[in-house]
Structure formats: structure tokens, C-alpha cells
Amino acid sequence: MFPDIDVNDKGHLTIGGADAVDLADRYGTPLYVIDEMRIRDNYRRLYRAFSERYSRFQIFYACKANTGLAVMRILEEEGSGIDAVSPGEIYTSLMAGFEPERILYTGNNVTDSELRFAVDAGVMINVDSRSQLRRLAEIAPEGLRISFRVNPLVGAGHHEHCITGGEMSKFGIMESEAAEVYSLAVDMGFEPVGIHAHIGSGILDPEPFMLAVESLMDIAGRVSEESGVEFDFIDFGGGLGIPYRPEEEPLDIEEFASRITGLFREKLSEYGLGKPVMCLEPGRYIVGDASYLLTRVNTVKESYRRFAGVDAGFNTLLRPAMYGSYHHILVADRPLDEAVEEIDIAGNVCESGDLFARDRKLPEIHEGDVLAVMNAGAYAFSMASQYNSRPRPAEVLVRDGESEVVRERETFADLLSKQTVPPRLLKR
Ligand SMILES: *Cc1c(COP(=O)(O)O)cnc(C)c1O
């Protein structure tokens, strides 16, 4: 599933049928380019694989991966729900046209006012702690339908920071107290209808995910036996990984779906859980490989090492600096040329850690070349900042070779827009 490298008759990289070098010339760099059909294909592949095997299946797109309105609209059209982790994401989802019933709010360390916002918005609240339950009880209407996030003591992920299950994780309710907490919720007047776990991110090996499914089903079974709760939905979270390196194997989604739905059905009948909706909350899997970050080489520098300096930095794409993540990079002007040199690709932020790649094998690079950083659709723009007072880049959406701006490039004025200077400090 590693994105195919498509090239036009000029030998330039194309994205969704559009010439990447032309896009860079026309809209400037750095530039995020989103391939609409790639998002739709990813969604449909996943949806089909699961719904063919278990018809009561729903995807809640984890929008923290990419909250762009155009991306959200595409997924709303596809029939997705939303996994929101903050009031801002709930707001954005509503503005993108998602019905509140299609939004699941999985907050973490949530304030009372955030809970009130979620209750007023009418979204499903996925409760993370006893504290949250107690505080929710004070504002929630009688009979509010809720779900709980439990920590199934299984974790996995591409980086320590992305493991969200297991003993070290701050997320969810301990599995040993799950049944008790559900009973407590019933006593408090709630109607618990869902159970949820999300064990981590960037998972390419089905095994830990299978363990989490098994564990969550056993917990659901126990909760149902001990508290009499009937589940409308069981949500296994997201975390489905994508290959970032060409040699990495993608998840075999058919096999993955077959194993998970198989185990799910077995456990449903073992515990007599009926036919709840099965949910997944993929973020990265849906949008990760659908965007490219285009950045132009402005400096080729021979120092102690050989550097290609570009006009983007970790303010634009944080993952390499934050997680040490690998992102495959193409020279958009000639992506199929043979790799002849090893070079560091360095950003323009004033920190030594601002590198997109070390010793990367690439075709010979010249000043003025456009580089395409692949797999820049998830946790990319959504983590961008104005650090070093650099306005955030533009985003364009491409489909059938046509491109449209879906987010304007910020300006210098945007850097100052929310600031005020006390009158006594104004320059006279
Ligand atoms: C981040 C997150 C996801 C999605 O993670 P991906 O690795 O992008 O699939 C799903 N559910 C919850 C609760 C999350 O916090």
C-alpha cells in the first residue's frame, strides 16, 4: 500500500494527477497537498473489509490526525463518524456537518466546562476516569447514554509516547475496576451503552491488536455479567499503522478484518452480548498517506556533512523531530532517478534537531529542486506551529489533476493577530 510513485511525461511526480512541481510553482512552498481519492480509497478499503464480515460496523475517524475541513467533509460524505478528543474537535466536526450522534468524545483530563460543552453538543461521551464520571453526574441529564474507555493492559505503538494501553498509560479505567464502575454509573442514573479501548498508534503487527480485542471482549463480558449492562457498541480504537518506509509491509487489511471479526463474533456468543455495533477509530490509516509536504531546496551546503536546506521545518512537520520518525522523501522533479548521494535534509528552524532525514540516499540534489515528503497526512499539519515566527503553510486538495486551495497560507499579520500590547508599552 506504500503510495505508488506516479510520474507524468515531464518525469515529474504527480499527486492525484497533478504535477507536484507545478503545484509548488503555483502555490509556493512549503505546501501540503492532499489527494482526495486516496482518502476515499483508504476509508472504503477498511470499511468494506470489516462491514462485509460484520455488517453492524462503524468507523469513527480520529480527527486529531487531520482536522482540515475539506478532509472532514470528504469523510462525512463517506459515512464516517468522528472520534474527537477535545471541545475544539467537537466544534470542528459539527461545523464540518457531522451530526452529534456520529461524534464520540474521548477526552482526557477533562474540565467541568469541557464536559458541559460536550453534553450541550449532544455527543456521546467516553468517560476516562471515576473523577470524570462523578463530575459528569452533576451536570448530565438523567439517563444520559455514555461509554467508558478502559485500559486493557495491552499497549503497542511506533514510539513510547504513542502507547496508550498498559500499566504506564494515563488513559482509561483499570480493567479490574471496570465492572464496578459500570454498576456505579447505573446507580448514578446513567445509561452506559458503550465500551472502548485504544491501545496505541502506528501498529503494523496485528498481534497486539488481537490481544486488545480479546481483552476488551473479556472485560465487556464481565461487565455485562456483573452489572447487567447491554452494549450498543464496542469500540476497539484506532492505531492501524501505515508503512513509512518502502520496505515495510502494510497491514493485510482483509486478514486483519477477518481475524478481528472472527474473534469478535466468538466472544459475543461466549458472553451472550447480542449484536452490538463494532467500531474502529483510525486516524493515520485513513489520511496518513494521502498528503505530501512539498518543500523547496534553497541551499546545498558542504559542511562537515552534506546538507540540503529546505524551506520547511519541524514547525511544518514535527514527526521526525518529535518521534524520530522516518518520512520517505522524493525529488519531485525526477523521483525515479537513481539514488547517487547520501545527504542530510535539514529544515529552516534554528535548532539542530530540525532535520527531515540523515544520510538519505537520493538522486543528486540541486538548489531549486522540489522535495516531496511522503505520508504527511496524519499528525502533520495538525501538529504544525508558528515557531520561529513562520506562518503556517497553505494546503491544496487535488482530484483528477485539478487543485484547489483548502487552507490559505498564513501571513505575517496572522502571527500577531491575537496579541495586544498594554498601552504603557506602546511606542510613542
Ligand atoms: C489518536 C487516537 C486514535 C487514532 O489513532 P491513529 O493511530 O491515528 O489511528 C483513536 N482513538 C483515540 C481515542 C485516539 O486518541
Q: Summarize this, please?
A:
This protein is of the alpha/beta class and 428 residues long. It is built from twelve helices and 21 strands. The protein has helices at residues 20-27, 36-51, 69-78, 87-95, 112-121, 130-139, 178-187, 206-227, 253-271, 284-287, 319-323, 412-416; strands at 6-7, 13-15, 18-19, 31-35, 57-62, 81-84, 103-105, 124-127, 145-151, 173-174, 191-196, 233-235, 277-280, 291-302, 306-310, 329-331, 341-346, 355-362, 370-373, 394-399, 402-407.
Name its key features.
alpha/beta; Lyase, Ornithine Decarboxylase, Chain A, domain 1; nine-stranded mixed β-sheet; eight-stranded parallel β-barrel; 24% strand; binds pyridoxal-5'-phosphate; lysine biosynthesis; amino-acid biosynthesis
Describe this structure in words.
The chain is α/β, with parallel strands linked by helices and 428 residues long. The protein has two domains: 6-34 and 289-416, Lyase, Ornithine Decarboxylase, Chain A, domain 1 (Beta Barrel); 36-287, Alpha-Beta Barrel (TIM Barrel). It is built from twelve helices and 21 strands. Strands 4, 14, 15, 16, 17, 18, 19, 20 and 21 form a nine-stranded mixed sheet that branches. A hairpin with a 5-residue loop joins strand 1 and strand 2 (13-15). Helix 7 (178-187) crosses helix 8 (206-227) and helix 8 packs parallel to helix 9 (253-271). It is globular and about 70 Å long. Pyridoxal-5'-phosphate (PLP) binds at residues 62, 64-65, 83, 85, 106, 198, 201, 237-240, 281-285, 378.
